[in-house]
Amino acid sequence: MGVSRQILLLSSSTVHGTEYLKYAENEIKSFLKNKNVQRILFIPYALQNHDEYTDKIRSAFVKLGYEVDGIHKTSDPILALNQAQAVYVGGGNTFQLLKSLYDNSLLEPIRKKVLQEGLPYIGSSAGSNVATVSICTTNDMPIVYPPSFKALGLVPFNINPHFLDADPTSKHMGETREERIKQYHELPDVPPVLGLREGCMLHVDGDKATLKGISGAKLFDPSKGASDYEVGSDVSFLLNIQF
């Protein structure tokens, strides 16, 4: 890979008891500082009210010292992407987000900018889902139908944001998150799934991947089973996965 990819994938934008992105402030600033970013292109497609969503994101990033432009405000989204210093893809409904990326012909341009030109990519929740192989391990309802579940493929595995460990005291009889992922792995030729607990984020710097934040992750490998990883773990091996 000629240019070092720079990717920061958050399980969620907010953790209990804190403001929007508060828990991730230091990581975001450190991540963007490496590329001297001053303006962020926000992709608000995961929610219907793009203006309101962009205003919310702008107010959070202004506190960190960054300006924010909503991609929906331009008549040429691809041109806006090509001129961007960094891109942030927010959470909401993953199906709606992916369909809008297809509708605006943005998947391949984003993939090229991030993997070939080193454009910093920050994703949160649904924005993290679409950075992976597919959105098949999202928690969201399919409220719209994208042309494909295939996503950006910035990393060669899938993510399950907001991952919840099973509560042994719960009387809830529905499937646990782990059981849902195991059902996915009953299918042939599907990738491992990294379950990001609330407050966890994955930082990809070129060929190095590290878990950061305030909580760890659980990796589900269809051939090896489940493994826990703490904050600070080097999970660079995930970037070399073939399935």
UniProtKB/TrEMBL annotation:
Q: Which UniProt keywords apply?
A: Cytoplasm, Dipeptidase, Hydrolase, Protease, Serine protease
Q: Where in the cell is it found?
A: Cytoplasm
Q: Which reaction does it catalyse?
A: Dipeptidase E catalyzes the hydrolysis of dipeptides Asp-|-Xaa. It does not act on peptides with N-terminal Glu, Asn or Gln, nor does it cleave isoaspartyl peptides
| The enzyme's E.C. designation | 3.4.13.21
Query: In the record, what terms sit under GO molecular function?
Result: dipeptidase activity; serine-type peptidase activity
One biological process term in Gene Ontology: proteolysis
InterPro entries on file: Class_I_gatase-like, Peptidase_S51
State whether keyword Cytoplasm applies.
yes
Which domain of life does the UniProt lineage start with? Eukaryota
Just give the chief location class: cytoplasm
A single cellular component GO annotation: cytoplasm
- Pfam families with a match to the protein in the record: Peptidase_S51
UniProt keyword Ribosomal protein, yes or no: no
Signal peptide residues are none
Quote the Gene3D superfamilies the UniProt record gives: 3.40.50.880
Task: Give the similarity note.
Answer: Belongs to the peptidase S51 family.
The task this protein performs is described as: Hydrolyzes dipeptides containing N-terminal aspartate residues.
What's the protein name? dipeptidase E
